[in-house]
Fold this sequence. Notes:
The chain is mostly helical. Helices cover 75% and strands 0% of the residues. Helix 4 (83-114) runs antiparallel to helix 9 (196-224) and helix 9 (196-224) runs antiparallel to helix 12 (264-293).
Amino acid sequence: MATNFENHNADEFPTPQMERSYSTPRTAIGLALTVLAFLLLGVALLPLFLVIGFVIVKGANRLNLELFTGSIPVALQEGGGIAPAILGTLIVVGIATAISIPFGVLAAVYLSEFSSGRIARWIRFATNVLSGVPSIIVGIFAYGVIVLTTNTYSAVAGGFALAILMLPIVVRTADESLQLVPQEVRWASVGVGASNFQTVLTIVLPAAMGAIATGVTLAIARAAGETAPLIFTALFSQYWPRGIWEPVPTLSVLIYNFAAVPYQNQQEIAWAASLILVLLILLASILARWVASKSTY
């Protein structure tokens, strides 16, 4: 009976269909603004695609095994590779990561979990100011603190400079990640007898670890592409890195040095190194997105 009643009502009172009329001014304006926003989005993304496409076209012809295993060529030498620069970049960025992550995450924990409102505002303001300091100024600072003290350019000095650049990124992303954890989670932990320290260490930090790892990955990607601080600290070398207290080659400084020389082989090496550096940063960004998708909140 109920089915017949429903069918009868449906036949007698058909459901009206919602149709958009493109003839009204409101709909036409909305459509025009949507098209305009789409076009501006394309214009905003155009430089990214042009840069990536240009680097691929210029550097793809030198992608071979020798590029990843050969030594850095000198002037008028044919062939060669960027293996020492890749290793030097990993060393310098590794030192910077080892310095910046503990300080950055602990600072974010203090800001999010233990600081008062006024102190937190001032620290966050200082972090924002630090993130806006030009990288060349950071390089000069690291030169005065590390290079002049040790009387040598080194991977440690380069890592120290990059750590300063990474620090505000790590602090801000970790701070925001910790604030995303719902307050009810902390109350539940304290309610079952855990102290504030235990709550932060065993509940809050693991819950925000995915987002924190995302910020750390993005900071590493930025540090790998910095050039100015390394010119004042790690300098450059044609040889394989022999220690952390000596000048080391890095990809960014290699690109800076070889891009302006008149030798075709070194120019091609610079373009290939640019492509490798872009791919490394792209890989780090994809990894950050993947890690973020695994986060709890």
